[in-house]
Write a structure and sequence with these properties.
about 110 residues; 6 helices; two-stranded antiparallel ribbon; Cytochrome Bc1 Complex, Chain D, domain 2; mainly alpha
């Protein structure tokens, strides 16, 4: 009986992870891809104008901490007085933002 409960818990956790990944992909498509591009390269017109980073570049990925990425998504990102990225903290939960950070990490080659 214990094995059954453990298996159910494992499957439930796996389902939650896949739902988070699907949600992150959907949230990325809706909120991020316009600037960061479908593959996270920042190669859209707006991304180039706003100097979006290329998240497929291992050096860019290595230069960023998850906490900093989380903060930028939640609170927005500014360079001086110029808003580069609007905040998404009111639209997305902390768990959704964490899933987005993981999604950005998946672009690394």
């Amino acid at each position: 009986m214990k094995k059954l409960f453990v298996m159910i818990a494992v499957f439930a956790a796996a389902a939650a992870v896949s739902v988070n990944a699907a949600d992150a992909k959907e949230n990325f498509a809706k909120s991020c891809a316009g600037c960061h591009g479908k593959e996270g390269k920042g190669d859209t017109k707006l991304g180039q104008k706003m100097e979006a980073r290329d998240y497929s570049d291992a050096k860019v990925q290595a230069s960023l901490k998850d906490e900093d990425m989380f903060k930028a998504i939640k609170d927005g990102y500014k360079k001086g007085d110029k808003t580069i990225m609007k905040p998404y903290g009111e639209k997305l939960s902390d768990d959704e933002i964490k899933a987005l950070v993981a999604h950005f990490r998946s672009f690394k080659k």
